[in-house]
Amino acid sequence: MKLIADFAPLESLSGTINFAQQKVEGGKIYHRYPPQMTLQKMSQVISNSMMICMKMKLYLMMREDFRKRRQKYKINETRAKELERYVDSQRMVLSNKEKEYLELYEDLMEDGLISEDERKLLDKRKEKYGISSERVKELEDYSNKILSKK
Q1: How far, in Å, CA of 61 to CA of 67, rounded?
Q2: How far is it, in rounded angstroms, from Cα 148 to Cα 141?
Q3: Tens digit of pLDDT for each residue in 63-121?
Q4: Is 33 helix (H, G, I), strand (E, B) or coil?
Q5: pLDDT grade, residue 142 (50/70/90)?
Q6: With bands split at pLDDT 50, 70 and 90, how would you rate the model's confidence at 150?
Q7: Residues 139, 102: contact at Cβ < 8 Å?
Q8: In 9-132, where does DSSP find H-type helix?
Q9: Cα gap 80→96, rounded to integer Å
């Protein structure tokens, strides 16, 4: 999936829109921005769309992997659905603060390492959000497992 952002001259925007409009069509996400939208807000909208694309791509990769394993191990459709329901029930449930911590961790892990300064930042965030050290380890292990599959 690709994120396509086309910027047209402001004169070409017909009608009045007060917020970024978004539609998904044919595996592409299209945006239309109001003239008064700041570049910072546009950047946030595009950034959010990129996250959606990455999550969709990860989901599709997982589905394809599941399909291949099902064929390899000759698992019938009924049993496959049972296994899927089990996997869904085991999915990690996160609070909003844990999601924010995890997003920061994943951003900092972009290069594959956490520096001392980055660890200090994560520790401050952990304290600010009131997340236990044990839970942080679970979150980071969960994230590392997902990132290693990409």
Answers
A1: 10
A2: 10
A3: 788 888 888 888 888 888 888 777 766 667 788 899 899 999 988 988 888 999 999 99
A4: coil
A5: confident
A6: low
A7: yes
A8: 39-72, 77-90, 96-108, 116-129
A9: 31
Identify the residue whose tokens are 């599941």. 66
Whose structure tokens read 């539609």? 23
Cα separation, 130 vs 111, in Å, equals 27
**Burial bucket for residue 19 (CB in 10 Å: 0-12, 13-18, 19+):** exposed
Tokens 């679970």, located at residue: 138
Burial of residue 129 (number of CB atoms within 10 Å: 0-12, 13-18, 19+): middle
Q: What are phi and psi of 125, to 5 degrees?
A: -65, -40
- The better pLDDT of the pair 41, 122 is held by 122
Contacts of 138 (CB under 8 A, 6+ apart): 92
Give the whole-angstrom CA distance, residue 105 versus residue 114.
Answer: 9
Whole-angstrom distance, CA of residue 83 vs CA of residue 63: 13
Among the listed residues 88, 89, 91, 108, the one whose alpha carbon sits nearest the alpha carbon of residue 100: 108
Q: What is the pTM of this model?
A: 0.43
